[in-house]
Each structure stands twice: as C-alpha cells, then as structure tokens.
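QA checklist item 7 of 12: single-chain prediction sanity check.
[x] sequence parsed
[x] length recorded as 301
[x] structure emitted
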Amino acid sequence: MKTGSNEKAAGIWAVAAAYVSWGLLPLFWRLLDQIPAQKIIAHRIVWSFAFLFILVFFQERWLEIKKIFSSKKTRTTLSLTSLILGMNWFVYIWAVNSGHVVEASLGYFINPLVSVLLGVLFLKEKLNFWQEISVFLAFIGVLYRAVDIGNIPWISLSLALTFGFYGFFKKKVNADSIAGLTAEMILLFPLAFVFIILMNIKNMGVIGKVSFPLFMLLLCTGIVTSLPLLCFNYGVKKIELKTVGFLQYLSPTFQFFLGVFVFKEAFTLDHMVSFALIWAALIIYSISHTSFMRKYNEPGR
C-alpha cells in the first residue's frame, strides 16, 4: 500500500512539474518568433531526437526501444500519438508567436474536461452529479466563445482535443517514459529531417541563415521539449486520467497570466464570461469529491 501511495505521489509531482514547465514555455517560444512555426517544429523534433538518443545511449536502453517496435499494436499506437503530438506542437507554437496566448490558454483550460469525457466514454469512468454540471458549464463557456468570435474557437479546441487524446492513448502504451518518447521521436525524425534538408536546399532554411544565439535556442528546443514530456509520460501512467485532468490547469493558468500581463493581449468582458464559465466548471469538478457534495455524488444522479 505504501509503495502504491509513493508511486502515486511521484506521478502527481511529475505531471505537475510538466504542466508548470509548459505554462512557462510561451516565454521561450517568443524568443523564436521570427522563425515560422513549421520550421521550429522540424528543429524541435530533430533536436529532441538528438537529446533522447544521447540519453538512451548512455543508459544502454536500445533493447527496450527494439522491443517497443517489435509489437505491432505498440507501433501503431505510438505512430498515432506522435502525429497527434506534432499537430499539438504546431498549433501551439503558431498561436503563441501569432499573439494568441490567451486563446491557447483557453484550450488548455478546456483540456481537463476533455480528459474527463475521454475517461467516461472509453475507460468507463463514472461522473457524479456535480461533475456532469462542470462538463455542461464548460460546454456553455466554449459555445459562448464561439458565438463571441463568430466561428468555432479552433485554436482552443485543437489544443484541448489533441493533448487530451495524446494523454489517453499514452496510457495504452506498454513502455516507460523515456523509451516511449524516444520511439515517438524516431517516428517523427525522418519527416522533420527531410523537411529541414529540403528547406536548406531551396535556400529557405534557418541553418546558416539566423544568428548564432538564435540557432543555439533552436538546439535547446530538444531539452525544453523532452524534459516536460518525460515527466508527463512518467506520471500519467501512475495516476488516474481524472487526476491528470485536474493538474492540467496549472499550465493554462501560467499561460493566461503571461498572455494578459506580460504579452499585453486583449482580455475583454466577453473573454471574461467564457473563461468564468470554464473556471467555474473546473472549481466544481475539483470539489466534486468533497464531503460537502457527497450526498450528490451518486453517478448519474
């Protein structure tokens, strides 16, 4: 029992560390805002692969990587998660460097409830009365935002759905955090590497075209990418998906404050209404297991 509790605590701390790191990442990506998002993504994949290659080499863990690829089911799942991760990266970096940090933060505020819904729909996890209310309020918040901007808030929803499904599918992979993430980068590396080579052949790349400090920042994308993901992939296997959803709004809280107070993005009354509905949903979900609401906690009430 004690070992189980220790593992759960380690999982919580690891996932929390990942979300805080992601919450502060807009500060890093803004340093690269003169480079198009697709080129940042390509270098991010290549240098993440390089960082993980070195890590796996010194830990002599190539047999684990080989074992992962020997399973057709695991290969298929990791192919899917790697593509989902790539889509999430692209939308997020484009949003941050295009002045949509607040909109991106909304997506990650929505994500916990996406995780809850995925747990209900596919893992047969149950919702009690107040959790159902929280999901409904979040839906109204997203709907209000859609009406406010006149179309679907695709940045927010794309980020919420891609990362929600990434966490969901990662729970199905029988591999530890380092081996699983390394396998994903191995799958993405050929596409990213070919893209970088083609861009440089066409004289449209960044190698030799940007300043040395900027290129060094590109090299660091491997570290700032891999460390939080390693924490996340380690922790997500040790705690319930619902707990992952709860911890997730550490990240958008940091992003939100960066967007409003550091990057000076607009935050109107309509923004406030939408965010308030989603924040209320998260608060209700957070206290849904407390004794104060226990009498309403029968699933489906």
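[x] summary fact logged: The chain has one domain: 2-296.
[ ] second reviewer sign-off
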